[in-house]
Amino acid sequence: MNEERENREHVEPASRETEAAEGTRPDGSRMDRRAFLAGIGLAGAALAAGDLLGGSGVKGARAHDVTESVYNGDAHPGYSSPRWMHACPIDVRDFGATGDGTTDDTAAIQAALNAADGRQVCFPAGNYRITATLTVPVIRLIGEGSGRTTVIFDQMTGLDGFAFQAATAPGQEGGVERMTLLCRGAHSRHAIVTPAVGSLYYTYRTRYSFSSLEFRGNQLQSAGSGFVYDYGWETCIRLGDCWGAYIDNIDAVGTYRTDTDPLAQPDHTFLKLAAAGGILSARISGITTHGVKRGIEIGDRAFFFIAGVDIAHAYEGIVSTGTTVFSEGRIHDTLINAQRVALHLNNRSWTAISNVAVSRHKSGFDHGGDWYGMKLEQVNKSWISNIRVQADTSVTPFTGTSYGFHFTNCGGMSCDGLIAGLGLSYGIYLDNCPQHSYDGIQFQGVSGVGFSFQNNTRDCVIGTHVFSAGWTSYEYGAVDRSRISIWQKDLQLESKQPFLTMRETDGAADQKNWKWTVNGGSLNRQIQNDADGGTVNYELVTRSGMSVTQMEWRAGTLYLNGAVTRAKQMVPASDNAHSLGSMSSRWSDIYAATPTIVTSDARDKEQIRDSDLGLAFIKALRPVSYKYKDVEMTEDESERMPARRFQRPHYGLIAQEVKAALTALDAGDFAGWTEDRATSRQGLRYEEFVAPLIKAVQELSAQVSELERALAAGGHRERG
Questions:
Q1: Nearest 5°: CA angle at 89, between 88 and 95?
Q2: What phi-psi label fits residue 634: left (phi over 0), alpha (psi between -120 and 50 degrees) or beta?
Q3: Quick one: which of 176, 334, 452, 704 is 20 to 30 A from 468 by CA?
Q4: Which sequence ranges form a coiled-coil region, renumbered to this chain (predicted)?
Q5: Which tops the pLDDT comparison, 13 or 501?
Q6: Does residue 192 sit in the same domain as residue 48?
Q7: How many CA atoms are closer than 13 Å to the CA of 320, on its beta-carbon side?
Q8: Residue 682, pLDDT above cutoff 60
């Protein structure tokens, strides 16, 4: 191994001599190797010199490892290759660690950690058996790769594995890389734990790197259990305060069985974030977990970026447990398979979640509770996009209620590209959620309710969305439907009072806005002023079931340009208040099978007395014959004389002559004569002349009777 390292040190090509002589700091500046060695201090120089001179030197010093410590391995996030290291590495074998899997290497490795003095500690390939917590200063522990370097934490019930100490100087970096952390014989507590001390965030700006790791137990359970181990960690990584943490390229296999009651299984979690001051920020990527009961737990004061994570066969995926929450988290390009809740966040804003696939295992245990694909509580002003959720129940039935997207007290949400799939009782469930917008939503498979609006959800706009057969589109609880607008395919609008406004941008003042509104079973067309503050109905259509019961137009003039109008019955809007036609707009002919009926009920009349118009009035009238000055309409709706006049004679009275007769008789007002004040045209109601005619006949009849009596009396006298 040492010979291999020595050979690697001398393979740098001549053309890169300058680069090889310098390391690269995180800020991009350079430090030459001499300056670096000088910076180690006298003790470091003595260590290097002792080995180079062939002496025994100080235990733990390997001069031929100095170059490797500066120029080894792959580039780390935030570092340029060749990698910058803080100091010469420490090899745990030099402190007595055997790595044979049997010998207890706890004391030897702890001695190496104690002697590190800020330098990284190397774990060559081997199996290192540990029986007590290893206290780690803020340094980096590096193996030769997962599966090659294995640290076996043996029979460590309730104990931590690598427990990092708090930093004592600014800018220190700790980490664990390129090894397998194995739990054997009993469940252990935290495989890796860092302090939750506020000064690490505010003062010391400590950083961590946990990369290229494997977490697992020792023995696999039965094949039917779904590839899980016998023992595992309460938490694989428990991250406290820091000024940045890189957690990447990690595989973790736990003990959780999806086909078994979760309450009977230990509560194990892959990653817990919780700080006293803050985590800025945890960058989590390239993670695969399988059979870990909870994937990622986001606690207090943690900024996070999660990408490229695959959480399989879990009880809970990514959950928020903190009460003092930092906003602005990011989750994207992630797969989650969980039996209770896949993604649960609370009490935050400015969060973005995108490109996530969520599912429930088809053979999962029916725990009897509700299932949530995405559960957000008091998450505001955030973006949710391109998320697919489904709960597969094809093998194991599920008795609880399944929610695809469950939002409670969430405001200002922008959601697009959501897909609600199989096995869901509710696709999207909104509980007291204001100001949501949705677009490009799909409801697939045969499931339950698409959108459920509950508990004062309001001011929501539902854009384009489609349902496959079997979905109930919408459900409304205690909400004001007028504050929920739904746009469907083919410009279908849906809400309690859906409306469509059209605006002519260059229209004249108060002539720009037109509006259609549906409300209370009626469709109203309206004009609206420019201030959007006032509307006037011009068409009102009312329905009852599948019948239109009433249609009303409100306009100064209504034109039915040449149309034939058919109706079973035509009635005025109110009784005895409206005219049919006018003096200037008259019907030419009215066809009827029976004459007009004029109501004459005594209950509708008052001041009833005998007619004072009789024979004298009738005798004063002049019956005439006449011909009309017929007119026809032009295109601009003005009148003009036709080229050919109709020659048929009409018989009747002249209104002006009737008025003159009334005046001469001092008869006063008579409803049989009318005048249109607007045009001064006069007209007659011929049915009003019936009573005077009857009166005249009665008067004549009386006169005839009197004459007959007189004649009869004269005849008797002559015979006498």
A1: 125
A2: beta
A3: 334
A4: none
A5: 501
A6: no
A7: 27
A8: yes
